[in-house]
Amino acid sequence: MPNNKIEDILKSFNPEKGEVPFSLFIDNEIYELELATVFKKSWLFLGFENMIKYPGDYFTTTMGEVPVIVTRDQNNQVRVFLNFCIHKGMKLCRATQGNSQFFRCPYHGWTYSNDGKLVGVPYYEPAYVNNLDIEKQGLIAVPNVKLYKGTIWASLAEKPKPFDDFLGDMKLYLDLIFDMFEGNMEVYGGIHRWLLPVNWKIPLENFAGDAYHAPFTHASAVSIGLRGAYGNNVRILYPGEGHGIVSVPGGLARKAVDIDALTPFRDRLSKAVETLSQKYGEFVKNMFPFGPLNVFPNFSMHFTWNYIIFRVWHPRGPTLTELQGGILVFSDMPEETKRQILRRALHEFGPAGVLEQDDAEVWSKISENGVSIRKGSIDPKLIYTRGLGMDVEAEKVLGKGAKGRIGEYYSDVSLRGFYSTLKKYLTGEE
Ligand code: FES
Ligand SMILES: [Fe+2]
């Protein structure tokens, strides 16, 4: 049951009217409530099947702050376990990725096979033989795992919403991206992980619907030729259920950075526009490749003529986020094309990316400033009213087959949707 302080914050949280209290981005109790609701009940993106291609492949990550191991067992089944030794709670696996048929705890050496069974207990006889039924013991499995078109998702809830209901109309837009790969989706160049001194929700806003910042935060990207001049024609698509898409007409960065090696990638995108518009509707031609997006709560992608990047915003504290990100390529493209895509992506987004640095500078100042302001017991309401009441059915703007609502001119429509969904989790409605 929310306490008084949380109740007060939630009272001034009216996302449908565009009112979001600043506390949401710095308050520790709100943060803890998010972990216990959003990250406990929602479906969470964990990674791509391509990251664990062979039996024994695994990677470690978190669901909220809960550490998990994602592995492909010897029978080819994808499994998700708490990264937790049931003997005395040691973190079982401390590597970020690898291949192993077994996980052996560094503390007392209990050993688990990668289907979760406890298979080895040192010095079992005579002290344990009558007191521990090995057969009945094993790793704690995450109760719900869903594989969807090459992606891996899980939920810690006992009975989560059906996965398709959770995605809602966002599924159409994710289908477009994942179908485009025709089974050739590859995570290339590994996963970068780094810490950002900011609340997890602020960075994802840029993907879910805050393209409004780009002409200012990324003004220098135009002068150095990474982007053409920013227009006022960016559309924000709200597919419902808290998800969000920024749709940039014509796609991003086609003219900039013209490198021959990118041609096979761009040709694939052009071809995909044709085949996918036949399958899903004319609207595909008006939005492909669409730009940034966010799947509620914390999985983002950015889709341009030069690359497709993905990132997961892992909460680590009210003003701390661990970013895990990488790029997707077509596995059957020439190696030089993959390398150039990786270079282009890292040049813009990544620990040293020029756009990433612009963003991170702003984000860290929001946290710093915000913490100081909250010390004065002041909780301003932030303003999310852009385009309020002006959004229309997506089909009217994008054409036949589109789903969701469109807000033009950098509307906050998807952010109001994100925060309305967040509020439902925080108040127990979801
Ligand atoms: S805590 Fe893992 S073997 Fe003891
Ligand atoms: Fe940005």
From TrEMBL:
UniProt keyword terms in alphabetical order: 2Fe-2S, Dioxygenase, Iron, Iron-sulfur, Metal-binding, Oxidoreductase
Matches recorded under InterPro entries: Rieske_2Fe-2S, Rieske_2Fe-2S_sf, Ring_hydroxy_dOase_asu_C_dom, Rng_hydr_dOase-A
MF terms in GO: 2 iron, 2 sulfur cluster binding; dioxygenase activity; iron ion binding
Full protein name: Aromatic ring-hydroxylating dioxygenase subunit alpha
Signal sequence bounds: none
Rieske domain span: 43-141
Ranges annotated as spanning the membrane: none
UniProt similarity note: Belongs to the bacterial ring-hydroxylating dioxygenase alpha subunit family.
